[in-house]
Write a structure and sequence with these properties.
The structure holds 2 protein chains of 2 kinds.
Chain A lengths: L1 H19 L1 H10 L1 H9 L6 H24 L3 H8 L2 H51 L12 H13 L8
Helix pairs in contact in A: 2-4, 2-5, 3-4, 4-6
Chain B lengths: L4 E8 L8 E8 L7 E6 L7 H7 L10 E9 L4 E9 L19 H21 L12 E3 L7 E3 L18 H5 L10 H17 L9 H11 L1 H6 L6 H10 L10 H8 L14 E8 L2 E5 H10 L1 H9 L2 H10 L2 H21 L5 H13 L5 E3 L2 E3 L4 H10 L5 H8 L2 H8 L5 H18 L6 H9 L21 H8 L12 H10 L1 H11 L4 H19 L5 H8 L3 H6 L3 H17 L2 H8 L2 H29 L7 H31 L1
Antiparallel strand pairs in B: 1-2, 2-3, 3-5, 4-5, 6-7, 8-9, 10-11
The chains are: A mainly alpha, B alpha+beta.
Chain lengths: 168, 661
């Protein structure tokens, strides 16, 4: 009940504000479509996709928004912007760049981690040695990824199984 | 002893030796010149401590006066022994040994000089709840050099009636092994008194050289009086008294009041022995023919291996049913055979079932007789003391285990046919003993049974046996005293010490001994320490340096139970400081600090998790899976978002600046 009334309050505030800045709203409504799509597509994986695309999308929109706010904040100006093919190219090109950033940075970070892994492994081994020195060998454990243990067991079972009779 | 009596190890008095105590000269520092002698008890025989506590200092007419007793270091045995100090009888023994002959006491003196004073002495003892149980001619002494005043000798240096020859014991008591005769009663004393009078009257033991089994057989067959008198000519004046005292029925046996009446010249009704049931048709067993049940029962015990044949083929049951027409007894025998066989089938162990059947049948045939189970012959009452003696003498303990585990005690109680209160008490006691036997841990087993049954049994642990510890507060000082000589790799709380503490101080040490039985070595070790710590804390003494050092050297499992190596080093440094204080409670509190334990456990869990995390990262690095790592993806996305946001802000800033400037 409380949630609904809060939402209603926001709507009641947003409508007059939206009416006051309607040209900006018109431009953003057209320009931020890729951001909306990104939020919807990546909603199950956190909002990083939406945020990255959205930030770049806004960056692409910024020159036209600046024009709108400085050259007359009217619906006609807004309509002029949204009917400009270069503006569209700018909005969607920037969004595409955002998407590219979102897609490539994990791979780049992984590559970086791999590059520094030698040092990292040494550091981890040192930490482990210190732990064993302080807490004894009982602290040690061997990591096996999921599925590896089952595969090992299956292999062992196959090795101990009765050999099949040779085919004639 | 007690800073008062000086015992002379080099001045023995063999003439006053007892079967289980040796006599030595003694001097009293307070009253020099007082004629005394000391009996040093042999350690393998538990003395009657409770009776000593009652008799100490008491002057009972016609009973040797016990001046004092105590436990003292005895150099000849290189251990502590119980020492009893008596007034020295100046006239020596009435009869040097059971085999010797002596000048019989004249008839005219006999009643007033012998019978009356001793009977009065026995009454005094009975009023104090004591049965003498060592009344025999070679335990009577002349107190004066003129040999006019006869007194009863020592009765505390061995368990009741242990040293009594069969001839002086009732039929039932004579059937039992010496250690299993039980405490006995005033009536038993009167019987032994009667047999002693008889020997004093004729000047020798009439049964000298006759085997014990034959003596018992004759007593059963003929009655005690007839068996003992045999062809002897008894003084006419004493026949009535002897018949009264040697009556086999304990309820009809003479007491001191009967003797008083007899001494005052009142003629009493001659006691008629209750006739035993006899069958017209004899039962043939072991090449003999039996018409009565009791003689057959005794013969069956004597021929144990053959007894099962007449039981299992039904001969015995039919003979009792038809020959004696005692259907209850016959039914009881049939039921005993059936139930024992069924139990054996359930338990899956048919071996020795025959022995249980024979034992149960013998109980039914002769309920007054002791429990007879192969070589074990004892009364339920005497079980505790016979177990203690068997343990002290390192004898086989299997019969005692069988006695408890095979419910022989219960069968014997049931065979008595009357629900006496004391039988109910045995039921409770033995049920507990059976539970102790089932428990294989320290603080239970036969060791626990022996301490539960014998209030004053000293701790038989090989560690402190020589210290003769009878009370809980003596255990720790004894362990402390031996700490320099024993193998300190052994635990100070062995099975005997644990059982002793549990029996004597269950409330104080029960949970600690349970902890000591933990399968984990560290918990068991700390449990052992806690047992000793709680006893020291509650009963003292303040400092036990030797024991603390001993126990401290055993604490490795506890130290190693801490995972943190630094903590272990700290403990190893700290323990010697605590040992030097000699306080086990402090040592325990230091080693088993719950906060430290919690900290250690938490730290270990954290370290384990950290090690496992590092291991996983290393694995991921080594197996090139970094790009698939969730964290790498997440970090990458975060980096992308941050970069895009920064670009956005910079762009906005640049555009706005461009427009505004």
């Amino acid at each position: 009940m409380k949630k609904r009334s809060t939402f209603f309050l926001y709507v009641m505030l947003a409508i007059p504000i939206g009416l006051m800045i309607i040209p900006t709203v018109i431009v953003l409504a057209v320009a931020l479509v890729p951001t909306g799509v990104a939020f919807i597509m990546e909603r199950g994986k956190g909002y990083y996709g939406g945020l990255t695309v959205g930030a770049m999308n806004l960056a692409g929109t910024s020159p036209y928004l600046a024009d709108l706010w400085t050259q007359g904040h009217t619906v006609a100006t807004a309509t002029g912007i949204i009917t400009n093919v270069f503006a569209w190219l700018m909005f969607y090109g920037a969004a595409l760049f955002g998407w590219a950033i979102y897609s490539t940075t994990p791979a780049m970070v992984s590559a970086f981690i791999t590059m520094t892994s030698g040092n990292r492994i040494t550091a981890l081994r040192t930490t482990q040695r210190e732990l064993v020195q302080k807490w004894g060998p009982d602290v040690e454990s061997v990591y096996e990824p999921e599925g590896a243990a089952a595969a090992k067991e299956a292999a062992a079972a196959a090795a101990t199984a009765e050999p099949m009779a040779p085919r004639r | 002893m007690r800073d008062r009596f000086t015992l002379y190890c080099d001045r023995p008095i063999p003439a006053l030796d007892m079967p289980n105590a040796l006599a030595y000269e003694v001097a009293d520092r307070k009253q020099e010149g007082r004629p005394l002698y000391a009996l040093v008890c042999k350690p393998e025989m538990p003395p009657r401590i409770s009776v000593m506590r009652t008799l100490k200092g008491l002057e009972i007419p016609a009973v040797l006066h016990m001046v004092d007793w105590g436990v003292a270091e005895w150099p000849l045995a290189e251990r502590k022994c119980v020492i009893v100090i008596y007034h020295r009888p100046l006239g020596g023994r009435v009869m040097d040994s059971m085999a010797s002959t002596f000048k019989r006491i004249p008839d005219h003196q006999f009643a007033r000089a012998v019978i009356k004073p001793i009977a009065d002495g026995l009454v005094e003892l009975a009023l104090k709840g004591i049965a003498h149980r060592s009344i025999r001619p070679d335990n009577l002494y002349y107190m004066d050099e003129q040999r006019t005043k006869i007194v009863l000798g020592d009765c505390v240096t061995s368990v009741p009636s242990h040293d009594q020859p069969v001839v002086l014991e009732t039929i039932e008591s004579g059937m039992a092994m010496p250690s299993g005769r039980g405490g006995g009663t005033y009536a038993d004393d009167m019987y032994a008194f009667g047999a002693t009078i008889l020997m004093l009257a004729i000047g020798r033991n009439p049964m000298q050289g006759v085997p014990d089994a034959e003596i018992t057989r004759r007593k059963i067959q003929m009655g005690s009086y007839a068996a003992l008198v045999g062809d002897e000519r008894m003084p006419v004046a004493q026949i009535e008294c002897l018949r009264g005292l040697l009556t086999d029925d304990a309820e009809q046996r003479w007491a001191a009041t009967n003797i008083d009446l007899w001494l005052n010249g009142k003629r009493l009704t001659p006691i008629q022995a209750k006739p035993e049931s006899t069958a017209q048709r004899p039962l043939r067993f072991a090449d003999q023919e039996f018409h009565s049940i009791r003689p057959l029962s005794y013969a069956m015990y004597q021929n144990w291996e053959k007894a099962i044949s007449i039981i299992s083929d039904g001969t015995l049951e039919i003979w009792i049913r038809r020959g004696h027409e005692i259907n209850d007894l016959a039914d009881g025998i049939a039921s005993a055979i059936k139930s024992t066989g069924a139990m054996a089938t359930i338990a899956g162990n048919k071996i020795d079932t025959d022995d249980v059947i024979i034992a149960r049948v013998l109980m039914l045939l002769d309920p007054k007789a002791p429990v007879r189970f192969r070589e074990f012959r004892g009364f339920v009452e005497g079980f505790g003391q016979s177990l203690a003696i068997a343990m002290l003498r390192k004898q086989k303990l299997q019969p005692f285990q069988d006695f408890i585990n095979r419910d022989l005690w219960r069968h014997w109680i049931n065979a008595q046919g009357k629900a006496a209160a004391e039988n109910q008490q045995y039921e409770t006691v033995f049920r507990d003993l059976k539970n102790y036997m089932k428990d294989p841990n320290s603080g239970a087993g036969l060791e626990r049974c022996v301490y539960e049954l014998n209030e004053w049994q000293f701790c038989m642990s090989p560690l402190v046996e020589a210290q003769y510890v009878m009370e809980v507060k003596g255990v720790l000082p004894a362990l402390d005293a031996v700490s320099k000589t024993v193998n300190t790799k052994l635990w100070p709380v062995d099975r005997h010490v644990a059982a002793f503490l549990r029996a004597r101080y269950a409330k104080g040490t029960g949970s600690q001994i349970d902890a000591m039985n933990d399968a984990r070595p560290d918990r068991a070790t700390i449990g052992m320490l806690s047992v000793l710590a709680i006893v020291q804390w509650r009963l003292g003494p303040e400092a036990l340096y030797g024991l603390a050092m001993w126990v401290g050297s055993l604490m490795n499992p506890v130290i190693n139970s801490y995972q943190n190596r630094n903590k272990r080093k700290d403990l190893e440094k700290e323990i010697p400081k605590l040992i030097r204080k000699g306080n086990l409670a402090e040592l325990y509190n230091f080693l088993d600090n719950p906060e430290e334990r919690q900290k250690d456990a938490e730290g270990f869990a954290w370290a384990k998790a950290e090690f496992a995390g590092a291991e996983k990262q290393i694995y991921d690095f080594e197996h090139g899976q970094v790009d698939r790592q969730e964290s790498a993806i997440k970090t990458g996305r975060q980096v992308g978002t941050v970069a895009a946001t920064l670009i956005m802000f910079v762009t906005f800033l640049v555009v706005l600046m461009g427009k505004l400037l």
